[in-house]
Design goal:
CATH superfamily: Jelly Rolls
Radius of gyration: 16 Å
Protein name: Cyclic nucleotide-binding domain-containing protein
Number of strands: 8
Distance between the termini: 10 Å
Oligomer: single chain
Strand content: 25-35%
InterPro entries: cNMP-bd_dom, cNMP-bd_dom_sf, RmlC-like_jellyroll
CATH architecture: Sandwich
Organism: Streptomyces variabilis
Shape: globular
CATH topology: Jelly Rolls
Domain Cyclic nucleotide-binding: 9-78
Number of domains: 1
Number of helices: 4
Helix content: 25-40%
Length: 154
């Protein structure tokens, strides 16, 4: 299975914008098994993973949530804060102990409103993350439901 590299924070933003964004960060830690957010809940923050693994999951009626993707070092957890109606589309749980940078969405959105160039760069970064995750989901769906080998890039 092939998936392009995820657009992580260090590669995604120019240094000056990365520094402005990181100035709004606070450190957060989550023990294994901690739910970061629930599908359908209010999306008011996001994280960039420093260490550990977070699993994105989706509710399936009558079953435990199904893992959609595993995220690790330098990856963005949560993008729903940027797009109305600011509601989580998935759930997220710490699969291992996690240390992360946490960002308050309202603060970051205010920074983006103050600095249009920063806003464009953050929107581009988050958009690339969403595009990457949609591509990964498509490949997984082809692996599950397509003819043998349909999800393999070639």
């Amino acid at each position: 299975m092939f998936a392009p590299p995820s657009p992580s924070l260090p590669r995604a933003l120019p240094a000056e914008h990365r520094e402005r964004l990181m100035a709004a960060a606070r450190e957060a830690s989550f023990p294994q098994g901690t739910r970061l957010f629930e599908e359908g809940g209010r999306a008011d923050r996001f994280w960039v993973i420093r260490t550990g693994t977070v699993e994105l999951d989706m509710r399936v009626p009558g079953r435990r949530p199904v893992t959609i993707e595993r995220l690790g070092h330098n990856e963005l957890v949560g993008w729903s804060w940027l797009f109305r109606p600011h509601v989580w589309h998935l759930g997220a749980e710490a699969a291992t102990p996690v240390r992360a940078y946490e960002f308050d969405a309202a603060s970051v959105l205010a920074l983006c409103d103050e600095d249009a160039e920063l806003g464009r760069e953050v929107t581009r970064w988050v958009g690339e993350v969403v595009a990457h995750r949609l591509h990964s989901a498509r490949i997984r769906l082809l692996d599950l439901f397509g003819p043998y080998g349909a999800g393999v890039a070639g």
